């Protein structure tokens, strides 16, 4: 039975408190394996309640470490969240606020701001901070943070395998269409190949501390699973199921097998006890592939289905096995947390602008970080036909402000996880307070607001350039 984590102590330390003199068992700096799934929904794992998808290895990881129930991506889509993980800064501060290169909606009411479509080289990434501390660094898998001038090897990674500008592979079967993968075998599956390369890196670097950023393309479209697994899940489909896509289920099982192979390799190399393993997703599940119920909507939306993601952390000697944390955390927190775990100093100027907090008090069950709220800023339209918005979560409450008409929605997530009852009219004082905090935060990070569009055409507002709008449908 999972042990529930109840935290009542509030820490008052600085953002990076404990980084310089981080306690590492045995005096050896821990390895860090960061596994990032793409488009994996909050409800897509067995340990998060799924009864259709099978994830025994991720469930095992949850039993060995801490599972977070209220973990968030910093954006409802991929590129901004990835930038936030690697820098510890909110997408609004980085001005990387949409998937790269984003969509074009020339007749919408608002225009997107002049946002940045790559991870700026002047930002100090986790890889750069850790490499300066003596770590070997590798990026294996999806990058999607800029083209040739901004690839992982330009951002502190010693090894880049399969990382390029595109956000999805043309195929999950060889030949993949990923330009940097020049060899393969007929029938080879991309998730398996990425895992092969990750294991090679871990074995080669087992005698020194390493940082492995294993960013799978799965479970992003195209929905292509290994044939035997697709057939397995076809046989599991029953009437009335909300999660029922066999190809997507097969992709999840391959992703889970990858995690199992990584865990087993760490054991075989004798370094499991000195390796931190973190698993999460870059945004909520895509409704054309899965169901995020009981959360509302999914990828691309301002609701919980768009932002809330699975997060599991195994930190040997720190996390209590099978513990569960209900404190809200967000992807900007990984940067200061990993620096704290490893004792890496990073860059003083960069650290001063980091938005995340060190999660060590949560992971060690000694307290909660000193943070009032978590924020989102999305000044774009997207394939879900979502209007630009900002949002803030403080305690149990979440406020959403839509940029087109300044419409406000307020939800009590403790009582109404599905965000069905808008409390903005019933709680005007709280609504005003949260709206003021959102405005102040936007100003503090230099958030770019979407300007009015002189070409606005209400009849075609939700139509992208050169193609008709298609709304995503739940399976």
Can you describe what's shown?
- The chain is of the alpha/beta class and 475 residues long.
- It is built from 12 helices and 14 strands.
- The chain has helices spanning 56-64, 78-87, 91-94, 126-132, 190-204, 227-234, 246-268, 304-307, 334-342, 348-352, 360-363, 428-445, and strands spanning 3-4, 31-37, 66-72, 136-141, 159-161, 210-215, 275-281, 308-314, 323-325, 329-330, 374-378, 389-394, 397-402, 408-412.
- Strands 1, 2, 3, 4, 5, 6, 7, 8, 9 and 10 form a 10-stranded mixed beta sheet that branches.
- A hairpin with a 5-residue loop joins strand 13 and strand 14.
- Helix 1 crosses helix 7.
- It is globular, with a radius of gyration of 21 Å.
- The two termini are 32 Å apart.
Essential attributes:
475 residues, alpha/beta, 4-stranded antiparallel sheet, disordered C terminus
Average pLDDT reading: 93
Beta-strand fraction estimate: 15-25%
Task: Please mark out the parts with pLDDT under 50 across 5 or more consecutive residues, or reply none.
Answer: 1-25, 468-475
Kindly provide the radius of gyration, computed on alpha-carbon positions and rounded to a whole number of angstroms. 21 Å
Please state the overall shape, judged from the principal axes of the Cα atoms: globular
Query: What is the number of beta strands?
Result: 14
Order of helices and strands: EEHEHHHEEHEHHEHEEEHHHEEEEH
In DSSP terms (H or I, runs of 4 or more residues), the helix count works out at: 12
First and last CA, distance: 32 Å
The residue fraction in helices comes out at 10-25%
Reported for the largest beta sheet, the result is: 10 strands, mixed
Classify the secondary structure makeup into a structural class: alpha/beta
């Amino acid at each position: 039975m999972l042990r529930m984590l109840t935290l009542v102590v509030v820490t008052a330390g600085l953002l990076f408190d404990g980084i310089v003199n981080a306690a590492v068992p045995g005096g050896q700096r821990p390895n860090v394996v960061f596994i990032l799934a793409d488009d994996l929904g909050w409800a897509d794992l067995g340990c998060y309640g799924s009864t259709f998808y099978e994830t025994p290895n991720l469930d095992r990881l949850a039993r060995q470490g801490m599972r977070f129930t209220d973990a968030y991506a910093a954006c409802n889509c991929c590129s901004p969240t990835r930038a936030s993980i690697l820098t510890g800064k909110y997408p609004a501060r980085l001005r990387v606020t949409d998937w790269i290169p984003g969509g074009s909606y020339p007749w919408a009411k608002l225009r997107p701001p002049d946002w940045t479509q790559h991870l700026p080289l002047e930002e100090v990434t986790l890889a750069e901070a850790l490499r300066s501390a003596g770590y070997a660094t590798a990026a294996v898998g999806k990058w999607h943070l800029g083209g040739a001038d901004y690839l992982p090897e330009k951002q502190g990674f010693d090894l880049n395998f399969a990382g390029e500008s595109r956000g999805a592979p043309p195929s999950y079967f060889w030949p993949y269409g990923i330009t940097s993968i020049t060899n393969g075998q007929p029938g080879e599956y991309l998730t398996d190949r990425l895992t092969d390369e990750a294991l090679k890196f871990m074995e080669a670097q087992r005698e020194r501390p390493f940082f492995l950023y294993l960013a799978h393309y799965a479970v992003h479209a195209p929905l292509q699973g290994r044939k035997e697994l697709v057939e397995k899940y076809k046989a599991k489909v029953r009437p009335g199921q909300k999660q029922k896509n066999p190809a997507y289920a097969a992709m999840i099982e391959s992703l889970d097998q990858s995690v199992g192979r990584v865990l087993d390799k760490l054991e075989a190399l004798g370094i499991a006890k000195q390796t931190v393993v973190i698993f999460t997703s870059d945004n909520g599940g895509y409704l054309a592939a899965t169901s995020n119920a009981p959360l509302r909507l999914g990828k691309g939306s301002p609701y919980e289905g768009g932002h809330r993601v699975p997060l599991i952390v195994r930190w040997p000697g720190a996390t209590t096995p099978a513990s569960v944390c209900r404190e809200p955390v967000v992807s900007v927190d990984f940067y200061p947390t990993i620096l704290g775990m490893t004792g890496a100093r990073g860059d003083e100027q960069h650290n001063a602008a980091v938005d995340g907090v060190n999660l060590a008090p949560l992971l060690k069950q000694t307290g909660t970080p000193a943070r009032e709220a978590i924020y989102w800023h999305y000044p774009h339209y997207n394939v879900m036909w979502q209007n630009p918005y900002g949002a803030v979560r403080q305690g149990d409450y979440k406020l959403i402000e839509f940029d087109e008409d300044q419409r406000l929605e307020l939800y009590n997530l403790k009582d109404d996880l599905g965000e069905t009852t808008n409390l903005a009219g019933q709680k005007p004082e709280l609504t005003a307070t949260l709206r003021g905090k959102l405005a102040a935060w936007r100003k503090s990070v230099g958030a770019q607001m979407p300007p009015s569009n002189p070409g606005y055409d209400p009849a075609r507002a939700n139509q992208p350039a050169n193609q008709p709008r298609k709304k995503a449908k739940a399976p």
